[in-house]
Each structure stands twice: as structure tokens, then as C-alpha cells.
Amino acid sequence: MPSPRRAERGVTLLELLLAVTLFSLITVTSGIVLRTAFTSLNRIEAKVDEDRRVVGSQRTLDLILRGIVAVNTPCAGQELGFQGSAQVLRFVTAHSLAEGSRGRLTITELIAESKADGTGFRLVANEYPYLGRPSLTLACAQPPVVRPSSFILADQLAVCRFAFKRLDV
């Protein structure tokens, strides 16, 4: 005859069903929490990447503009080799997109281009080597054109235009 203690050993089917149900609930809840966390992480990474691109473009533009060199070469009627309008800037700078600030002068064009689909503007840069007076005179004679090799500094802009303040010295 089995002892009464032996009959109490083991797990009933109801207890097993309850344990499996609780384990399933915990697993599903953990999965939902992890999915939400990964979705948030992806959104944060996308925002950080966008911020890095903006800061990088702003820094590059700042370096290009800080490197402007006044050269005594006529450009579109200006004696200092500078041409500017609301859509285009053309000048000589000591900072190059390709080489950085290594001492070689470049002719840089900044173009505020309206996007073809009408959704905004983008800021595009072209560079040409500055080889003295003839190279700048030749560059100023040509209208600025966005080429496939042009570097896009900023995209998806609501507005992009240049304004100038004349300083009378």
C-alpha cells in the first residue's frame, strides 16, 4: 500500500497549465517591451545621424567661409575675385572639400538650388583649382552649374538664399 506522502508528490495538470500560461505571459510581455525599446533606439539613432550630418555640413561651410581669400583678380566686375547673388556665391578660399586646409587655394561656388520636385532647396558646392588670375577670370565668365560631381552640403531646406551687407570703410 502506498504511503500518503507518496500520493502528494508530482504536479497536477492544472498546476502545469497555470505555470505554462504564466511563462507565456511573461515571454510575450518581454517581447513587446524589447520591440518597443528597439524601435525607440532606431528612432534615436536616426535623429543622431541627422544631427551629425547637419553639424558636419555646418562645420564644413564655416571652414570654407573662414578661408575666404581676397585676390586682386576681377570677377564679374568685382576687383577682389568675389561674385555673389541671392542664389550663387563664387570666391577663392583656402579650404577645400577634397583636401581640407592644406594651403592650396580653390575657387568655390556655393549654389542655392531649387529642387526639381518643388519640395524645397539644397545647398550645393563646386570647386575648381585656383591657378592665378586666368583661372578665376575663366570661372567667372561661366554661369554656375550643378553637376553630378557637385557636393551637396545641405538638403531638404525650406529656404536657401544668400544676403550681403555692404560695409563702407
What does this structure look like?
It is built from 3 helices and 5 strands. The mean pLDDT is 84. The chain has helices at 4-7, 13-66, 133-141, and strands spanning 83-84, 88-93, 106-114, 121-129, 151-157. It is an alpha+beta fold. A 5-stranded antiparallel β-sheet has the order 1-2-3-4-5, sandwiched between helices. A hairpin with a 3-residue loop joins strand 1 and strand 2.
Looking at this protein, list some descriptive labels.
alpha+beta; 5-stranded antiparallel beta sheet; 3 helices
Sheet with most strands: strand arrangement: 1-2-3-4-5
CA-to-CA gap between the ends? 116 Å
The number of strands is: 5
Query: Mind summarizing the main beta sheet?
Result: 5 strands, antiparallel
How much of the sequence lies in strands comes to: 15-25%
What does the radius of gyration come to?
Answer: 32 Å
Order of helices and strands: HHEEEEHE
**What structural class do you assign from the helix and strand content?**
alpha+beta
Gross geometry = rod-shaped
Helical fraction: 25-40%
Which regions are unreliable across 5 or more consecutive residues at pLDDT < 50?
none
* Count of alpha and pi helical runs: 3
Task: Draw up the topology in text.
Layout: H1 4-7, H2 13-66, E1 83-84, E2 88-93, E3 106-114, E4 121-129, H3 133-141, E5 151-157
Task: Give me a quick take on this structure.
With 169 residues, the chain is α+β, with helices and mostly antiparallel strands.
